[in-house]
Write a structure and sequence with these properties.
The complex is a heterodimer of chains A (88) and B (127).
Chain A: H1 6-25, H2 29-42, H3 49-65, H4 70-87
Helix pairs in contact in A: 1-2, 1-4, 2-3, 3-4
Chain B: E1 4-9, H1 13-24, E2 29-34, H2 37-45, E3 53-57, H3 65-73, E4 83-87, H4 92-100, E5 105-108, H5 116-123
Amino acid sequence: MTDPLAPMRVKFLARCEEDLLTLRQSTQASQLTAMAHRLAGAAGIFGYHDLGALALRVDDGIRATGEIDKGELDALEQALQALCSAKT
Amino acid sequence: MSPLKLVYVDDEPDLREIASFAIELDGEIELRTYPSGRDALDALDSSSWRPDGFLLDVMMPDMDGPTLLQHLRERVAFSTTPVVFITARAQPNEHQAFLDRGALGVITKPFDPMTLARRIRSILGLP
């Protein structure tokens, strides 16, 4: 069965690679929350609901406290890494 | 029958692309998308094209969705045009707040591309 979202899925997965780099290199809450917010809105469209939920927790956490929760960030990083590894 | 005319404003290009694909599945919707509230307002102010409804992302830099709704309401042409927010903010109290600010409905991200058009029609009270 063909995936009607296939071209967009490819773009989304390519962007996940960039997001992983951002996660690993950025310490700016604003940059991380922007990335997490975008992931929270898009991941579930392609069926990656757990990833979206983790991203939403990071986004919500930073917006609520202004600070980055390392545990939540690590969980998001692991999920992104798993997705990026699976597609290769 | 003339197509339903919609405007979708979202700062995320990937979401605009997905929503365009999803809404075009309907076959009877004319969609225009803009990356920001300012771009949308500038385009609408300089055109006689009048949408039947607005789909607005909530969290956007520079001008968020609720602020854009306010600006639309200040324009006679759009003072009563239905507005639907599309947002990753999923808490019920947040949705109610959007309705209290004048939105007709709220669609949560991530949305299902295969049913997005039908959901929009339902919120707008259209077949």
